Amino acid sequence: MRIDVWMDFNCPQSYISIKRLIKTVEAFKFNEEIEIVYRSYEQEDRKDALSKIDEDDLNKLNIKLDNIKPIKTQLPHQMLHLGKKNKCQQEVLLKLFKARFEENKDISNKEVLKEVLKDLLKEQEIEKTISELTFKNAIELNKENAIRRNITKLPHYRFNHTVDLEENPTIETFKKAIVTMYQKETNTTYCEDDNCYR
Fold first, then answer.
1. For residue 174, is it within any domain?
2. Which of 12, 24, 132, 152 could covalently link to 174 via disulfide, CB atoms 3.0 to 4.6 Å apart?
3. Residues 5/157, Cβ–Cβ less than 8 Å
4. Which residues pair with 166 in a beta bridge?
5. Where in the sequence is the domain holding 68, given as residue range(s)?
6. CA-CA distance, 88 to 80, in Å (whole number)?
7. Rounded to 5 degrees, what are φ and ψ at 159?
8. How far apart, in whole angstroms, are the C-alpha atoms of residue 157 and residue 75?
9. Residues 95-116: pLDDT tens digits?
């Protein structure tokens, strides 16, 4: 079972919502059967990125929107794809989001990227990826594929290519989508809590 997530590093809602998804997946009984794939969607319009963000969510992570300046997100997305290649994509994603929104670091700066990711990725690989923009085509294709699927709001979640959620789903909404996905994938009537949909 797979969950595809389109996100951008200019979007604090992506960080808030993805943390909620990860928590929901970890609590799911069959979580080892779920793969989460993070997809790049460079977002130029910061106003759209900052729309509909719950103040409580911001306060929990001590995010101050006044301190957040838009950045070019090409290099952080390069690191996201490098993380996927090295089988540590989610760890890279969370480190970059935390550095950006909780620590107010400029993750568009290559020296900052090297410092933030030094425990996860080799410095030589980071340098090579930045200098060659190794994953430029993959990043562009991620966004093009999203646009073809009419994905315009971030974050966007697609469960097994069928169920779509966007922006700020609750834990209960994530649970429902995961259980529905599991039922369809395994052809079972498995239920979790109140999440029985057959």
1. yes
2. 24
3. yes
4. 156
5. 2-186
6. 9
7. -100, 115
8. 23
9. 999 999 999 999 999 999 999 9
